[in-house]
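User: Hey, my collaborator sent me this sequence without any context and asked if I could get a structure. I don't really work with proteins. Can you help?
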Amino acid sequence: MPVGHTEAVVTGTLAGYNSVQYIKRSKPLILPTTLAVGDAIRYVRVQMETEEGLGYKYTFSGSVYFDRMKQKGLYSINPQEIAKRVDAAEMARIFS
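Assistant: No problem. I've predicted the 3D structure and written it out in structure-token form, which is a compact way to encode the shape of the chain:
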């Protein structure tokens, strides 16, 4: 999994949410790869299955994943742009 504060908060929250889904016998939430966090989870999972991938750190603030995020157009510090992407992915109200 990704390492860092943001990554830990997001993956921990997702794990807790999906634990409840499991208990309720509901489908787990899978974050779409159109969002940086969804892409990061999928990308890091694949990379961690390789020997080379085990040697990297994956964070939103630098390193291998940060470069990927910029290349894929997923990096932004504009709150409105991020909100539009979250809305388009239908993830804005998942905790409502």
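In plain terms: The longest helix spans residues 5-23. You can pass these tokens on to your collaborator as they are.
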